[in-house]
C-alpha cells in the first residue's frame, strides 16, 4: 500500500510545513503546541517557589555554554514583533 504524504502548516502560526501521513494527525511542528500559551499567575508562583535556592554548578554551566556555541536559531523561535 502506498503511503500518501499531505502537506499542512503548523497551527501555531510559524508557517512551517508539516508532512503528515495517513496514520497520524499532526497539527504542530514538534514542541510548538504550547507556543504563546498564557499560564495562570499561580502556576508561575509555584514554579518560582520550587526553583528558589536551585543553583547550577560551574561545570554544568560550562557544558551548556559549550553546547550552544556556534548554534543559531531560525526565525521561527523568535516572537513576531
- Tell me the overall shape: extended
**How far apart lie the N and C ends?**
46 Å
> Radius of gyration in whole Å, from Cα?
19 Å
Low-confidence stretches: none
Rounded mean pLDDT is 80
Helicity range of the residues? 25-40%
Percent of residues in β-strands: 5-15%
Instruction: Note the total helix count.
Output: 2
Structural class: alpha+beta
Mind explaining what this structure looks like?
The chain has 81 residues and is α+β, with helices and mostly antiparallel strands. It has a domain at 1-47. Helices cover 27% and strands 10% of the residues. The protein has two helices and two strands; from the N terminus they run ββαα. The protein has helices at 41-51, 58-68; strands spanning 6-9, 17-20. The chain has a two-stranded antiparallel ribbon with strand order 1-2. Strand 1 and strand 2 (17-20) form a beta hairpin. The longest helix is centred in the middle third of the chain and has 11 residues, at 41-51. 0% of the residues are buried.
Amino acid at each position: 500500500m502506498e503511503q500518501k504524504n499531505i502537506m499542512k502548516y503548523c497551527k501555531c502560526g510559524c508557517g512551517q510545513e508539516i508532512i503528515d501521513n495517513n496514520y497520524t494527525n499532526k497539527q504542530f511542528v514538534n514542541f510548538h503546541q504550547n507556543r504563546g500559551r498564557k499560564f495562570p499567575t499561580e502556576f508561575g508562583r509555584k514554579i518560582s517557589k520550587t526553583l528558589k535556592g536551585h543553583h547550577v554548578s560551574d561545570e554544568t554551566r560550562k557544558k551548556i555554554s559549550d553546547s550552544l556555541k556556534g548554534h543559531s536559531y531560525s526565525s521561527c523561535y523568535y516572537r513576531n514583533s
